[in-house]
């Protein structure tokens, strides 16, 4: 890699999630929001991609950066966290996830392109953490990340207050992501929202549909009705089957 | 980028038979590939387990005294010897349990599965070598 400056390398086009994700700490939980566009340079690769990943029943993670990196890293994190919480006999906490993630990302020195925002509710309270690809961690009350983060942060900075109510927090996150979608080419399509509280998780996908949604899919049908292709001849051969063995097993309904 | 100690010096002993580079199995020769790492993380990952162990043993020695790392290393050496026949892949379960890596999943568990390896040693020759008959 020392000769990269001399030899011109062909640009690798991987699918990027240059997205927009943000979340907000509210009164009794955490609200995460994300758009649903994945791009590969100038082309939209996925119009309905899921950027909010499951880590634990009480912890969800938004991922920006390279699509495959965020997905695999969050899956590994989820598996390791489950094994760890089973071993130690404790419910998973957000700090555990953050530490596992930090170790993993630092080991690979930023080569794994995963910007992750972890949010969750555990026995110690509501937490939001931001983890950079190199492994640095920041604990924040609200944050936006991705290519559209500046526009979203503007809305968040203006509207955030400590201890927001649920509906106001959802509206704030929605407005922030909407601002990012309007101002940035790398974000777009629908908005997903995930609300985590002590009672449970509400993953609303999509929370808001895009105004430029393609309605042709509902009208276009790819199935042809029977009779489109004319049938010339028909021959029916019944298969002779004989019962060789019959066993009865009782279902255990105890 | 300076030359590191852990990269073998090229040109003196190519990997093929009779001292000639085996193009079919190990590809074309390239001085750059043998002197410089081909990825920023190549050296760090090649020696990762070694460096972790060194760090841990050194800390353990400072806290508990020389006996602690010595005992642990003896156990590691014993566990490493539990293998199957020379050409079969081993799960290294005892070694994993000692290290604590049976409780975590990493890329080494997903990628480079030894059961899917394309290369395999010749069984007869490897067993003969091991028994000292060769």
From TrEMBL, chain A:
GO terms for biological process: proteolysis involved in protein catabolic process. Residues 1-33 form the signal peptide. Pfam families: Pr_beta_C, Proteasome. One of its GO terms (molecular function) is threonine-type endopeptidase activity. It is found in: Nucleus. Residues 218-248 form the Proteasome beta subunit C-terminal domain. CDD domains: proteasome_beta_type_7. GO terms for cellular component: cytoplasm; nucleus; proteasome core complex. The keyword Hydrolase applies. Keywords: Cytoplasm, Hydrolase, Protease, Proteasome, Signal, Threonine protease. Gene3D superfamilies: Glutamine Phosphoribosylpyrophosphate, subunit 1, domain 1. The proteasome is a multicatalytic proteinase complex which is characterized by its ability to cleave peptides with Arg, Phe, Tyr, Leu, and Glu adjacent to the leaving group at neutral or slightly basic pH. The proteasome has an ATP-dependent proteolytic activity. This subunit is involved in antigen processing to generate class I binding peptides. This is proteasome endopeptidase complex. It comes from Lates calcarifer.
TrEMBL record, chain B:
GO terms for cellular component: cytoplasm; nucleus. One of its GO terms (biological process) is proteasome assembly. It comes from the Eukaryota. The keyword Chaperone applies. Keywords: Chaperone. It holds the Pfam family UMP1. Belongs to the POMP/UMP1 family. This is Proteasome maturation protein. It comes from Lates calcarifer (Barramundi).
